[in-house]
Amino acid sequence: MNDFFSASTATFFYFLVAGSAIVYLILKFDKQNRKKLNKVLTQAQDVQPMYMKKAAENKLQTLKIASNNKKTGL
């Protein structure tokens, strides 16, 4: 019976249990983060990209200035 639980066997089972626990914790943490990310992505679907919004505002401002210049004859 002592041969079955030698030092190398005990070490193997120790690392097996510890490794399994670490893998379980990593997967659990990944699942939580995936849920949070999916929630944020679904909320952000209706939001227009910031750079696109700024570019459109800049273009409208330029067009307004150009149309005002034509109206005033400048």
Count of folded domains? 2
Q: Spans of 5+ residues with little confidence (pLDDT < 50)?
A: none
Question: Percent helix among the residues?
Answer: over 70%
Radius of gyration: 31 Å
Report the span from N to C terminus: 102 Å
Classification by helices and strands: mainly alpha
Averaged pLDDT: 86
Tell me about the largest β-sheet. Answer: none
Shape: rod-shaped
The total of beta strands comes to 0
Order of helices and strands: HH
Main attributes?
74 residues; mainly alpha; 2 helices; 2 domains
Characterise the protein shown here.
The chain is mainly α and about 70 residues long. The chain has two helices and no strands. The protein has two domains: about 1-45; about 45-74.
Brief account:
The chain contains two helices and no strands. With 74 residues, the protein is mainly alpha-helical.
Question: How are the SSEs placed, and which strands pair?
Answer:
Blueprint: H1 7-43, H2 50-72
